[in-house]
């Protein structure tokens, strides 16, 4: 069977290791529900979500529009308090965690300041926080621009960049806080197909370089399969987790994978899973 439930997804060796020392959870989502008051009825955006996201994993959340993906990311990052349940981050309440550390957040729209250069856009969060001296901030920003391969574009303005480059700026800005958790809400949804595929390999490289835990929301199955260790499939009305699937060949960062028969077949299985009632 190509799609295995999460608990069967590890190899026997991994199972032994995890029995001895369980994988440390970066994010624990416990019995989280979220309802919004509507005009006619209450919208059950999320019902009883339970999910453990281990450190340094790349997890995708997929599902149709309206199944609560963005709501779940906002709850994880404490932008929205859940109606029920709690989220713990590295064993702390998410409020306590945020006192010590920030989440990196990347949205579909790069949301850069048009009148600021690439350098200034990446520096802005650090400048607002008053983090480090100007010289230290400069070193850090140059290091981040190097990481996202935009070192030659520090003095450019957003309008002078392609969509993919703007998203790289947005990723560099999200990493300026030195987060260990990166939350991404359909970050490549507005990019053309070729740029999007390029960004997949870039993201895998950045994820490896920084040892991040990534939670990546998408409605693209192929994107989820190419990038993730595990894929959380959600269903709408009410928003809930339908299944957790392990990718067969996670993160080989090899474009040839897209034509691999097993990959194609896993994609077909996932598609069926999303469409079944
Ligand atoms: N602030 C809000 N007020 C009322 N309803 C909301 C709000 N945010 C989201 N919803 C509703 O919650 C459901 C889930 O939304 P969302 O998390 O944006 O889904 P997704 O990101 O999967 O498309 C939708 O029915 C949406 O209309
Ligand atoms: Mg959304």
Automatic annotation (TrEMBL):
Domain ABC transporter: 27-261
Organism domain of life: Bacteria
SMART domains: AAA
Single GO molecular function: ATP hydrolysis activity
Keyword set includes Kinase: no
Entries under SUPFAM superfamilies matching the protein: P-loop containing nucleoside triphosphate hydrolases
Keyword list, A-Z: ATP-binding, Nucleotide-binding, Transport
PROSITE patterns listed in its UniProt record: ABC_TRANSPORTER_1, ABC_TRANSPORTER_2
Any Pfam family hit: ABC_tran
Family: Belongs to the ABC transporter superfamily.
Name of protein: ABC transporter ATP-binding protein
């Amino acid at each position: 069977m190509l799609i295995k439930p999460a608990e069967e997804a590890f190899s026997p060796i991994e199972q032994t290791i995890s029995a001895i020392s369980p994988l440390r959870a970066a994010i624990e989502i416990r019995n989280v529900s979220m309802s919004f008051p509507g005009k006619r009825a209450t919208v059950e955006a999320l019902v009883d979500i339970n999910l453990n996201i281990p450190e340094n994993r790349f997890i995708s959340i997929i599902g149709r529009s309206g199944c609560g993906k963005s709501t779940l990311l906002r709850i994880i990052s404490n932008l929205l308090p859940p109606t029920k349940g709690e989220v713990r981050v590295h064993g702390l309440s998410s409020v306590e965690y945020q006192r010590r550390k920030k989440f990196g957040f990347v949205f579909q729209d790069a949301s850069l300041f048009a009148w600021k250069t690439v350098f200034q856009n990446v520096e802005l969060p650090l400048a607002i926080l008053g983090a480090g001296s100007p010289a230290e901030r400069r070193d850090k920003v140059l290091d981040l621009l190097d990481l996202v391969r935009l070192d030659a574009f520090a003095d450019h303005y957003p309008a002078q960049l392609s969509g993919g480059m703007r998203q790289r700026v947005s990723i560099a800005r999200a990493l300026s806080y030195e987060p260990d958790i990166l939350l991404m809400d359909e970050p490549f949804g507005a990019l053309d197909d070729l740029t999007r595929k390029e960004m997949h390999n870039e993201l895998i490289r950045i994820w490896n370089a920084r040892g991040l835990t990534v939670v990546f929301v998408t409605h693209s199955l192929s994107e989820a399969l190419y990038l993730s260790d595990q894929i959380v499939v959600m269903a709408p009305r009410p928003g809930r987790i339908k299944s957790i699937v392990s990718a067969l060949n996670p993160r080989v960062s090899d474009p040839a994978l897209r034509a691999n028969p097993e990959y194609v077949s896993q994609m077909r299985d996932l598609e069926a899973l999303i469409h079944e009632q």
